[in-house]
Design brief:
67 residues; mainly beta; single chain
């Protein structure tokens, strides 16, 4: 279980970020931290092993979007 995943001004999303054909969840923190976190799917839930995937993405008021 993830408490406060993509809280505040963070932007949540879903997609296969690990290449295993399962939908994972992603959070772009935005603001000054501008970090990206991914919670991989276990096929029945989302892993407690939330991974930081990137620094400095969607900084400040920038909003990530899909093509």
């Amino acid at each position: 279980m993830h408490h406060n995943f993509a809280g505040g001004v963070a932007v949540p999303g879903a997609g296969d970020f690990t290449g295993d054909d399962r939908a994972d969840v992603i959070a772009f923190t935005r603001g000054g931290a501008a970090d990206v976190f991914v919670a991989p799917s276990t096929s029945v839930a989302f892993s407690a092993d939330v991974r930081k995937w990137s620094d400095w993405f969607a900084y400040g008021t920038e909003v990530p979007c899909r093509p």
